[in-house]
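Exercise 3.2. Students should predict the tertiary structure of the chain below and write it as C-alpha cells, then compare their answer with the key that follows.

Predict this chain's 3D structure.
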Amino acid sequence: MSDFLRTVNVTRYISPLREGGSLPALVDADDEFKYVLKFRGAGHGVKALISEFLGGEIARILGFKVPELVFVNLDEDFGRSEADEEIQDLLRASHGLNLGLHFLSGAITFDPVVTKVDEETASRIVWFDAFITNIDRTFRNTNMLIWKRDLWLIDHGAAFYFHHTWENWEKTAVSNFVYVKDHVLLPQAAKMDEANVFCQSKLNKEILNRLVDAIPESWLHWEDLDATPDEIRSVYKQFLNLRLTHSDNFVNEAKSARNVLI
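Answer key:
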C-alpha cells in the first residue's frame, strides 16, 4: 500500500488515552507491538490522520526521531463487546484504515526547563513546524517526549490546518506562520538560516509528491468537499511545494518573533 508505512491489524484494545477530545487508545497489533492508535472516527477524522502521516514522515525525512507510524486496520467486528458506549461508538465509526504510532514505553514528557535543546536542533524543529503549519508545539503542550535519553517528536494532527476549511490554501501556503511566536523551542532557535539551508537540502518536489501519493485513498473521500481524491492530493502537493519554495517567509517570521522574546 505504501513505500512509507507498514500495515498491521488490531488484535486487542487495551485502554483509552484520555487526552483532548480525540480519545486515542493503546492497542496490541498482530505484529506483537503496542501502538497509540489514532482513530478516523474521532475529532477531525481522516484530516487529522493525514496531518499525522505527512507531519510524522516529513519529520523523519528531516532526521528527527519519530515513533514508527503504521497503517492500522480495525475490523468491523472489533469493539462490539466494549462496555463504554463512547468508546464503542468511536470504534464503530473507525472501521477500516486508521493510523498508529509505536508506543514508547517509559517515555516522559519533554520539559523545556529540565531538558535543554541545542540551537541547531531547536532551529530545525521550529523550521519543520512552521513548514507544516503545526500550531501545537507550545509550552502548554510540547508534543515531545524523552525516550532513552533522546528527543522524540509526536502528535502532528493539528498541522496543515488549512484543510479544515479548504479556502485560501494558496495564501496559507506562502504565509509567514505567525503562530511560530508560541513555539516552545523558539528561544533556542538562533540558527534559522542554517536550518533553512539544511531542511531545503532534505526536501524536494519528488519526495513531497511521493509522500502525498502514499496517503490512503480511503482517507480522501470527504463529505464536506466536492473534490475527488486526485484533486485533494493535487492541493496537498501544491501546498507543500509552495511552502518549500517560500520558506524564507516563515524563517524571517521566526527570526523576528525570536528577537522580540530575547
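Discussion points: Residues 229-245 form the longest helix (17 residues). The helical segments are 46-61, 85-92, 119-131, 169-173, 192-202, 205-213, 229-245, 247-261.
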